[in-house]
Amino acid sequence: xxxxxxxxxxxxxxxxxxxxxxxxxxxxxxxxxxxxxxxxxxxxxxxxxxxxxxxxxxxxxxxxxxxxxxxxxxxxxxxxxxxxxxxxxxxxxxxxxxxxxxxxxxxxxxxxxxxxxxxxxxxxxxxxxxxxxxxxxxxxxxxxxxxxxxxxxxxxxxxxxxxxxxxxxxxxxxxxxxxxxxxxxxxxxxxxxxxxxxxxxxxxxxxxxxxxxxxxxxxxxxxxxxxxxxxxxxxxxxxxxxxxxxxxxxxxxxxxxxxxxxxxxxxxxxxxxxxxxxxxxxxxxxxxxxxxxxxxxxxxxxxxxxxxxxxxxxxxxxxxxxxxxxxxxxxxxxxxxxxxxxxxxxxxxxxxxxxxxxxxxxxxxxxxxxxxxxxxx
Amino acid sequence: xxxxxxxxxxxxxxxxxxxxxxxxxxxxxxxxxxxxxxxxxxxxxxxxxxxxxxxxxxxxxxxxxxxxxxxxxxxxxxxxxxxxxxxxxxxxxxxxxxxxxxxxxxxxxxxxxxxxxxxxxxxxxxxxxxxxxxxxxxxxxxxxxxxxxxxxxxxxxxxxxxxxxxxxxxxxxxxxxxxxxxxxxx
Lengths: 377, 186
Fold this sequence. Notes:
Helices cover 60% and strands 6% of the residues of chain A. Chain A is mainly alpha-helical. The radius of gyration of chain B is 16 Å and the shape is globular.
């Protein structure tokens, strides 16, 4: 009786079956194409996108988040660079929206709403998007803008490497003691990319400062427990490891290993989820496309890191297993044409990922970035 | 998971001090040791079989090795808490003669659900040889415990009970370690 009870309890509560659907490279590319098409169809004339759509209520939800806007632009430039030609004009229009919402002061520029507090995350991801465009197209026309954005970011980095999440136009200074789950990693990655693009610009010092903070103190100082699943920091680690003549220090390598574990267990947990039945009750609903996508992005970044850092190389095989799982789950959960046709507005459903009946533009963003990165590490 | 951790896990899982007072007492000390040794051997065979089948079992159930370590850690945690908070088990009714090696030595004293789950996790992670090696030393410690008479002096019984509870604390610690290892494995 004890054996049966323990086995049953474990199966239900601790180790439900983990299921990772197969997805060929063609399946993944087709999913990217469909997601890019969603962003194309649902882009507004000003370059912004339908932010969020509730298919159950057939209602376009209000609000807009410019951090996510910048992230979508980034993912579209990644797609364009990977050969999805349809992505380029959509990305350019999104970049146009961002350039129309720049706040400029004292030699720096930031992406934000006029008069509102500026978010470091939005500027960091816009910087990454501009640099992605530069890297993929070779165009240098926005180099000055990228560096002005970088000047703003450096101003948000404290002496100890912590990144202040906001800047207040009323005080003309960064808002003290306010941090954000992802703005730190986003800023770290943007500064690391700036150093690779402009090696003489002095971006490496603040990037190192943020990296040292993230690797050794961030979760403790900002009281983040469980440890933060931070795909942006994974991007940053990979970026820093590619600086000419540089390698990660031991603390950063230890952090990369820990991050791989955090991302890995989340994938395992996600693969235990089901649309219904007991697993639905025990494990809850599927993660949003954005959440699942970030796991893939983070793992793919660490996989790339493993190609240039022998200390991470042994993790590449298990990382590949988890990455493939993410790709399979993303492909399986994307709304296809047949499912979309059954919805009130197929154009808002086809190619999207829904969570509890709602899709948001960054669901498509993170899924695109993940599928592309997993496809070609 | 290192061999040392597995060894500590197996020893604290079978908890020789705790099961000591429940081992059968079929007359002479030699008979008690012999029956316990046979029961330990039976346990070891089952552990080896479970460890050998661990990969196939986990594959069939679509469970990752790291998830199995989390499961083992949680079961050991509960077992450790039970061992810590409750007294030693009462002497079990024994089958006559050599069959006492099966009941109660192998079942229910040694072959517990927590030992089987640990064998699955260890077998999948480190293979049969390492798992059996750790389990061998653990059940060997139980055979060693059988050398002591079941009815101890009050002072010796007190030492045994304290040792059993300290072993339970160790089991809790190793259970937490296994769980964290499972969580942080890619």
